[in-house]
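Translate sequence into structure tokens.
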Amino acid sequence: MGRPTTRTDSNESAGEPSGDILVRIRSALPALAPAEQRVAEAIIEDPAQASRWSIGVLADRARTSVTTVMRFCRTNGLRSYPELRLALAGAVALENAQSQPRTHSHTDISETDTLDEIADKIVFHEARGLEETRAQLDIDVLKRVVEAVGGARRIDIFGVGASGFVAADLHQKLHRIGLMAFVWTDAHAALTATALLRPGDVALGISHSGTTADTLDPLQAAAERGATTVALTNFPRSPLAESADLVLTTSVREMPLRSGATVSRTAQLAVVDCLFVGVAQRCYDHSATALNDTFKAIHRRSVPYTAARRSTPDAPSVPAQDASPRGGSDQGGVPD
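Result follows.
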């Protein structure tokens, strides 16, 4: 299936670069030709040095030609190589400023790091991932997804692995405000569910890489049934994104020791929260009542802050803030 006309690629127009160039390069890397991938990898390995290299030096480092480097610039929305160097210098300066006073928190985790350094690095990368995700989040597309989900007869959500936990979180949130939502983390069950979809329904696939077959296959099957398809991925040129009507993207970088999976899940959850609150806001009074009722249903399961468990025949009244779409306790968002 070709790229849907509903996609918007505002960051890819040549001569109109926007946002962090390193974010765009990392997002585009899997879809680049092999020679351009080597250019991207040389830049990502040491962006500070790359910002000072001549075009010939970068071509040599990437084992390719000057022509390929120029093609790489145009692929990433830049008109010239000097423009790339300026963009890299700005991105490096921003990262250095944001990593102060913890001067090494922007680097990868190493085998010699202390737990204090590991904590600094993980928190830095999670915070940076959230900031970069918000900076490139297409609000117009988000609005269209909110309208599609809010008006759907049913919503089927697909995801496996770490993305499966995010899919389950979104399912629970939507279910708590009375929407007919389902979550599928098994490929066979997901494909079976798509047989019941029809126009007006929504199918949403979540995959950091955008290449997971267990998520891609049911999303494509849902499209064949006429459902509106939505992808949540880190790579806007991935197969999952290309198969979807509407694409929401995160923006996180990979790190060793699976911390990349942690950061990607945090960013995905942030986008899911934006989507959920937008949907709940469409029918605010109904959503607030539903959240309040579901809060009361599980409030009895809370253990009091005493050594002995007390009997609570009547659930206490719920504070006003608990009736908001965000909730006001551990059970306000998603029950344990």
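Note: Confidence is low (pLDDT under 50) at residues 1-19, 315-323, 326-336.
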